[in-house]
Amino acid sequence: VATDALVFYASKSFASDTLSVEALREFFKQASPLSKRVRGVSSGTIVYVPTPMSSITSNCILQCAGGGAVAQNAFLRYVGSSDSVKRCVANSTTAIGAGMLSDLIRDTVRFKILGIKYTDADSNRRAMKVEQSAVYREMYPFPVKIQVMLLENLQDLPMGIASFLAYEPGPQKYFLQQGIVPAYARIQLYEE
């Protein structure tokens, strides 16, 4: 139906503007502190994520820990919900939160979404701002697909609702306005 993105964010006064994919993977898989790999990040930086039952935390495990178990980490804190993560990050100059792009795209007064550094297929180092256009062009390393799963006959009401959400211009435009990349909308990108 659409694609959102897993993002990492911090308060406006946070020392760094970017994180690397490699540093995030080491953090979640090997419990390596982010301060070892990210310039400007203090040794006491805590990463806040919602409870383990959250889709945000599930995507951190799938995309940053490779689907395996998250290593025991003194710098990883589970809190109640994505709103709890926002409160923890807002009250600290050294905290990082994990969230969804659609939840943070309009909250840029309190937070900055951290850019992502990665190595592309040609072994070039790249840094990228997290934007809908990067998610749309499949350049962002942590996309989150939003799908509708139906377990019944394809000719019933749930299928009609799923089709409406996926193909009608109204819902697709609403997804775009909320920071989610619609799956079937016609989008034209212009290079700057």
Descriptive report:
Strands 1, 3, 4, 5, 6, 9 and 10 form a seven-stranded mixed β-sheet that branches. The protein has a three-stranded mixed β-sheet with strand order 2-7-8. It is α/β, with parallel strands linked by helices. 30% of the residues lie in helices and 23% in strands. The longest helix is centred in the last third of the chain and has 11 residues, at 157-167. Strand 7 (115-119) and strand 8 (125-128) form a beta hairpin. Helix 1 (21-30) packs across helix 2 and helix 6 (157-167) packs across helix 7 (169-177). The model has no long low-confidence stretch (mean pLDDT 82).
Low-pLDDT sequence parts: none
Estimated helix fraction: 25-40%
Number of helices: 7
Q: N-to-C SSE series?
A: EEHEHEHEHEEEHEHHE
Strand tally, please? 10
Mass-distribution shape: globular
Largest sheet: 7 strands, mixed
Structural class: alpha/beta
Q: Output the radius of gyration.
A: 18 Å
- End-to-end Cα distance, whole Å, is 28 Å
Q: Give the integer mean of the pLDDT values.
A: 82
What is the percentage of strand-forming residues?
15-25%
Secondary structure layout plus pairing:
Blueprint: E1 2-11, E2 18-20, H1 21-30, E3 47-50, H2 55-64, E4 76-79, H3 82-90, E5 96-100, H4 101-104, E6 111-113, E7 115-119, E8 125-128, H5 132-136, E9 143-146, H6 157-167, H7 169-177, E10 181-182
Parallel strand pairs: 2-7, 3-4, 3-5
Antiparallel strand pairs: 1-5, 1-6, 1-9, 1-10, 7-8
Helix pairs in contact: 1-2, 6-7
Please summarize what this structure is.
This protein is of the alpha/beta class and 192 residues long. Helices cover 30% and strands 23% of the residues.
